[in-house]
Write a structure and sequence with these properties.
It is a single chain. This protein is mostly helical and 357 residues long. It has 15 helices and no strands. Helix 2 runs antiparallel to helix 5 and helix 5 crosses helix 7. The radius of gyration is 30 Å and the shape is elongated. The chain starts with 52 loop residues before the first helix and ends with a helix.
């Protein structure tokens, strides 16, 4: 049987009747518009759509490198200093890997490039005056956060310390802190001192207080294993973090105080010294010899104290029944200049100690 059918109009892509227009005929207001296939952008790696752990790590390094090393936030500045140790460790590992593993010239070049790009994070860090803060869109943070959450089971403690810091420094909370807790908890025994301090510093500030006490207690119990890697500033920061979490356990002071005493002669920063004295007082640490040693070190640095650190230093020693006569005799004239920096309660206390009316 012969069937007759009409001519099919429209054709394929690019034909006028196949165009996404409001009229189906060729004679319309849209007759001069042509359908054009745009080139698809396949740079998925740049938006982390298929980013692996290495890409996530590189992105975190790029973000940390781009932010200003402002001194306004002492915690952020402190964590930035700790990243130096992380990067130096990564550089050392890369060198060991290059010595032990035989790789092709291309792979060796890539590893070397990655190693030096990581080391440049601190060396090329911007100064406070330049402040070239990177601008990232909301879509970037959404995709970055999504890829991090999907890859949490692949990350190691050092990776967590970098990636969490990249969110922390830019003040982005996309749920990545809460999501990472259960994965970090299982890797606490693998932490080194640097990753321990960075992760504790960030999560103690970002997680809701009293909701993750079991997690932080596990970190506290692991402290003796990283003691050999901690300096005085690390120990002071750890004590402050646990105090802010309301997990004041005097066992931490018992663990730390001997190492602090053995390195006390290296302390040249009065802010660190006063903070140490104050935080040990807050933990109700009752070792008089420890506070006497802090006082002796403070007498050597007495001319370097500013108003607030000096108040904390004197207040802590006074409440631990340490004799302040030497400090009063040497510093009485300078206290007059400090009074304008104190509130009424602080001014009243300093007036009583130094005999100022």
């Amino acid at each position: 049987m012969i069937r007759f059918s009409g001519q099919r109009l429209g054709g394929g892509v690019g034909r006028r009747l196949c165009m996404p227009i409001y009229s189906g005929s060729s004679d319309s207001a849209f007759k001069d518009k042509y359908f054009v296939l745009k080139k698809i952008n396949h740079k998925y790696e740049n938006v982390l759509l298929f980013g692996d752990v290495n890409k996530l790590r590189d992105t975190a390094v790029e973000l940390i490198k781009g932010i200003s090393s402002s001194g306004d936030n002492s915690n952020e500045g402190y964590v930035n200093l700790k990243i130096k140790g992380y990067i130096s460790n990564e550089e050392k590992k890369a060198r060991e890997l290059e010595d032990d593993v035989h790789v092709g010239p291309d792979s060796a070049a890539d590893n070397k490039h990655l190693m030096y790009s990581n080391s440049d994070v601190v060396q090329d860090a911007p100064s406070k005056g330049r402040n070239p803060k990177m601008v990232k869109t909301l879509s970037f943070w959404q995709i970055y956060s999504m890829r991090v959450k999907k890859s949490l089971h692949l990350l190691r403690p050092n990776d967590f310390s970098l990636i969490l810091q990249s969110f922390h420094l830019y003040n982005k909370d996309t749920g990545v802190y809460v999501s990472s807790v259960k994965h970090i908890e299982g890797q606490i025994p693998e932490m080194n001192g640097i990753s321990f301090v960075i992760i504790l510093n960030i999560l103690s500030a970002r997680l809701k207080k009293n909701n993750y006490n079991d997690f932080f207690k596990k970190m506290m119990n692991y402290l003796p294993n990283v003691m050999y890697e901690l300096n005085i500033r690390d120990m002071n920061n750890i004590l402050t973090c646990f105090h802010n979490l309301e997990l004041n356990d005097s066992r931490i002071c018992d663990i730390f105080y001997q190492k602090i005493l053995s390195n006390l002669n290296r302390v040249e920063d009065t802010l660190t010294l006063s903070s140490l004295c104050y935080i040990f007082y807050k933990y109700n640490f009752e070792n008089q010899h420890f506070f006497e040693c802090l006082k002796k070190r403070g007498l050597l640095l007495l001319n370097n104290f500013e108003a607030k650190p000096f108040y904390k230093f004197v207040f802590s020693l006074h409440n631990r029944n340490i004799c302040l006569k030497e400090i009063v005799d040497k510093k009485k004239n300078d206290v007059f200049a400090f009074l304008s920096y104190y509130n009424d309660e602080e001014r009243l206390f300093m007036g009583e100690i130094f005999g100022i009316k």
